[in-house]
Specification:
- With about 425 residues, the chain is of the alpha/beta class.
- It folds into 2 domains: about 210 residues, Rossmann fold, CATH 3.40.50.720; about 210 residues, Rossmann fold (3-Layer(aba) Sandwich), CATH 3.40.50.
- Helix 2 crosses helix 4.
- The longest helix is centred in the middle third of the chain and has 32 residues.
- The radius of gyration is 24 Å and the shape is elongated.
Amino acid sequence: MMSIKQQLEHKLNNKTAVIGIIGLGYVGLPLAICYANIGYKVIGFDNDPDKIDKIRLSKTYIKHIASDTLTTLNNNGFEGSSDFTRINDVDAIIICVPTPLNKYREPDLSYVTSTIDSILPYLKNGQVISLESTTYPGTTEEELLPRIESAGFKVGEDIFLIYSPEREDPGNTQYTTSTIPKVCGGHTQNCSEVGQALYGQAIDTVVSVSSTKVAEFTKILENIHRAVNIGLVNEMKIVADKMGVDIHEVIEAASTKPFGFTAFYPGPGLGGHCIPIDPFYLTWKAREYGINTRFIELAGEINTAMPLWVISKVADALNSKAKSIMGSKILVVGISYKKNIDDMRESPSVELMQLLQARGALVSYSDPHVPHFPKMRKYHFDLSSVDISESMLKEYDCILIATDHDDFDYQLIQQAADIVVDTRGRYKMGLEKVFKA
């Protein structure tokens, strides 16, 4: 007779397992599509009924996921639900919920813990639970494990617990959910083997590590590596600006070295769910061990200060025309956190809009990927995107390029605008009317 573990592995390997995914955002929805496309029954859970309705009607709410893809998802038997009693119907539970910072820049695990508390009454023997939300090392053992054990389960025998960090990169056409290698760590060896079975059919390469804590630390390191290097190049941008040097030309030249240099690019600040947030998860946890992560915190200070530096450059640009920010009409071009996507999470463009408005500017924005300003926790703008034209550009005192979507006609902007402030290196230094920021 097969053990509970063997029965679950058998279901996962022959695709008779039902996959439950909690959180149907930028991480959970692509994962649901991935599993449904290869023959698994998928139930997606989300507290937002609007998302459930839109999927059912094949109406996309994530721009890089086409409506046709949602039609295929529905045809493959996908079910959306806000009813957590249906957790009892699934064999695998993959948690993809937000892990933001609170107002004190400390980890907010309320989405994770409330999810576990909500599903706890409906867990059963023979299930695997995987947390994919980015968090500090130790979260799975400290927050999920005791809750599951308190319900009477023996983790590693009755139920299986793993951590496998998401690595989604919205808008990246080179890598997909299935082709990005998947790091996976289990609470026990049995958990690790079940994790391999869970992801092995859907993901081309599963990288097993020795524990959930190693897997958690892996994701944190990936994002801190990027945050620190972006902080470095942002500081170099400020130095280069003072010296009258174009930092983008410098990076382009340095990139010709075939070894020992990796190009990172400056910008108006950090955006996305990961890089502006994840480093602070480790700095917070490190204090428990009496360690001050000075290097990480310094990079965070530099990156957090970049929007204010951009505002100072906007003020300089307007001063050159004997104008001030107060009362000036300013068009922010591009408001998603990176180009060619509609993802607004932690977008520095929105912080720029807030800072400009606080200084008395009349702010508008143009972004074909964000036709209407969405509901956000921190920011509230009753605005819709305006279309760029020669006559429209002439109405503004300053055009601020915050996110450099490829859709924009940068030659038209430079020719028609009175002033352009470029935070993304779209223009070469020395062009008439263009100020680098």
